[in-house]
Amino acid sequence: MANQRQPRKNRTKRIFAARLAGTTVFDPIGDAVGRVADIVILLSFRNAPRAVGLVVEVGNRRRVFLPFSRITSIEAGAVIMTGRLDIRRFKQRTAETLAIADLLDRLVDFKDGSGLGRIGDIALEQSPHRDWMVSEYFVERVRPSTLGYRRTGESLLVGFDQVSGTATSGLPQDASTLLATLENLKPADLADSLHDLTEQRMIEVAKQLPDERLADVLEELSDDDRLTIVSALEDSRAADVLDEMQPDDAADLVAELPQDRATQLLQLMEPEEAEDVRRLMAYEEHTAGGLMTTEPIILPPDASVASLLANVRREDIPTTLAAIVFVTRPPLETPTGKYLGVVHIQRALREPPQTLIGRILDTDIEGISPDTSIGTITRLMATYNLTAVPVIDDAGMLLGAVSVDDVLDNLMPDDWRDADEDVTDETVTRSAHG
Fold first, then answer.
1. What one GO molecular function would you report for this record (predicted)?
2. What's domain 14-96's architecture?
3. Mean of the per-residue pLDDT values for the chain?
């Protein structure tokens, strides 16, 4: 068949998109300014697709655009640029396609009618005019199966004009390659990366995340993004993910869903998790009851410091809740027995492991009622330098705890995740895009 590309003499310089991802970008004096996150491509139905620049991830996980006109060299392990980066956050335009986020793993048709393939990498070559053009795709043949599509084991390089489907999104798209590039990101950074994708691609990537990982990411996403994702999940999967979320975040999300869907998901959730969510949804949004989590670290007064330290080491405990332990009489599930006080992690670290935590209680941290306003909670945290405050009922039982991150989320503007910082450096325009 004609799909095989024969080696050409005097081939111009060529780079592969997947291999370029993660490459360090250096300024003219040799200082690292960021890493390559993606390549911006303009697709064409007739001519070779043109790469117009790189998406560069700078130190604060901000993604910015670097046009190829500002790149002086692309070598193994290094991209050398000239001038300054435009520090405005990169926003993908309608006509733009991201090589890694949008094209890798996309299913395409071979134009000779020999079947389907999945794009595994993209080769770009520099033209005599110094433009970077897509020359070839590295494609793995696939065939339909009962579980979707199965690789046949055959891989080949084909010209950009020998396959179709790169400029459309009608076929389902895997996200394995993209997820591999995002594997080590913290949930908040992964949430930022998902937000930067198109809606369809964001859903495709989210569906392939494990339940626990997706739950962590949903807690960091904006209301619109997480509603989009949960709305695209099957009911059973959505319920499993809600089970993994912090109860307060799950309650906020369920409250945003249509009533019928919310009721259905609550019925499918684990009974204990669903009960926590229902209880939290009963409180006003900007009160202690509406902000609190029902799962802080709770221990009895006869627990040892060793036991306390083992609990705060758990990976599922948010940092803000790991700094303080709430001590109550049994039962230890909220609503608990009588609230007694708290133990600060710094105090516990100064004690022998066998010390009973009842002996190092801080009884000055009084509980607040569920209807306490967010303004009062903020002043209390600021006055006493607290990362979390206990919420108790009229009988003195611990209902939960409000953490400082939940307070901050509610004090920030609704669109704070999308807001750009003030641009103070000299910037360049996106004129290189067209």
1. magnesium ion transmembrane transporter activity
2. Roll (2.30)
3. 88
